[in-house]
Amino acid sequence: MRFLHTSDLHLGKILHNTSLLDIQAKALAQITDILRDRDIDGLIIAGDLYDRSIPPEDAVTLLNSFLDKVCRGMGIPTFIIAGNHDSGERLGFAASLLSGNGLHMAGPLQESVTPFQLEKGGEIVDIFLIPFANPRLVAHKFGLDTISHESALETLISQANANRTEGRPAVVVAHCFVSGGESSDSERTLSVGGSEEVPASLFAGFEYTALGHLHAPQNRGDRIRYSGSLLKYSFSEVNHHKGVSIVDIAPDGQIEIEHIAIEPARDLREIKGKFDQLMRDGVTDPHAEDFLRICLTDEQSIPNAMARLQTIYPNALELNDVVVRDSEAGAGKEIAAIEQQTPMEAFTEFYEKVYERPLEEESRKYMAEIIEEAMSEDLP
């Protein structure tokens, strides 16, 4: 049995006020080609189909067109979970009806985690879909004493294990942060008041774990993998090699994993050098229209640098001066340090500076709820 694992499409993503939808459409077209050319039996998308819970209309149209080609046009069963950027309720609409056409979706949290089946030539693989859910919701639904991402996911995984068929390979699909994973700036935090990480040991016993959330393709064990995001969505990802994972799974549970690259129609890169040299290089650069962060190494300030660079590099998005005057260095370091803080860390530091005492635990929990609620709302 062979399936393709992808995740974190983030359709409708806006990068520095620039829509990525056309580039995303071309990347999805590459996935369609891979599905056809590599004789794929099933498609798994491990969450974050959209970039926000109320996606723009053209993003919905793009996803609908892609899934129609895969499920109806190619007859490939597709298995999808909601990620933390998605609305589980919206994504799960009409799921029972769509399942008859080979589109199996887990949007909102269900009472039980039961498997879907991927079949071919008498072989069967059970696929357990675990959508992202707020730990408080899981705790309330299943009567948990503790509220954490680990306890919530452990409860859902135990349900999946209880519904396994002995001797049949099983795949679990989840959207979470496994401890030790490499993260990126474009990933929205899963938690505010506590740890969002979960141990890889939760997935022990499954033949393959298809994960979403972290944007760098990576393994968290021999059978636990993040396929990574469809495209580069922040400059912290410039060194990522984006792609999809093809997984072959034998009846005895043995697996083979292959990473297949996705080539973006317009890459996200960083270039560095002196202003005059970069202006000369850009004239002959075949990729001058890539999305760029430009780092200038000139010791003096360059008037209207960004506007002038954009005549050569039309999609330059960020401009940084690598050489900073001593008078600016302290402020720059302080700003950089603040930008690396979580909202809770920034608030705690502010509170302690103003009131000259630690933030009380009750106030901390209350503020964590407020921040988490605010961050779950879609920004324009």
Can you characterise this structure?
- The chain is of the alpha/beta class.
- The protein folds into three domains: 260 residues, Metallo-dependent phosphatases (Purple Acid Phosphatase, chain A, domain 2, 4-Layer Sandwich), CATH 3.60.21; 56 residues, no CATH class; 49 residues, no CATH class.
- Helix content is 32%, strand content 23%.
- It is built from eleven helices and 19 strands.
- It has a six-stranded mixed β-sheet with strand order 6-5-4-1-15-16. A six-stranded mixed β-sheet has the order 7-8-9-12-14-13, with no helix packed on it. It has a three-stranded parallel β-sheet with strand order 17-18-19.
- Helix 7 links the parallel strand 17 and strand 18.
Shape: globular
Major beta sheet, strand line-up: 6-5-4-1-15-16
CATH fold assignment of the largest domain: Purple Acid Phosphatase, chain A, domain 2
Number of domains: 3
Can you summarize this structure?
The chain is of the alpha/beta class and 380 residues long. The protein is 32% helix and 23% strand. Helix 1 (21-37) runs parallel beside helix 2 and helix 5 packs across helix 6 (149-162).
Blueprint (SSEs and pairs):
Elements: E1 2-6, E2 14-15, E3 18-19, H1 21-37, E4 42-46, H2 57-73, E5 78-81, H3 88-91, H4 95-98, E6 103-106, E7 116-120, E8 123-129, H5 135-142, H6 149-162, E9 170-175, E10 177-178, E11 197-198, E12 208-212, E13 218-221, E14 224-226, E15 243-249, E16 255-261, E17 268-273, H7 275-284, E18 291-296, H8 305-309, E19 316-321, H9 326-339, H10 343-355, H11 361-376
Parallel strand pairs: 1-4, 4-5, 5-6, 8-9, 9-12, 10-11, 12-14, 17-18, 18-19
Antiparallel strand pairs: 1-15, 2-3, 7-8, 13-14, 15-16
Helix pairs in contact: 1-2, 5-6
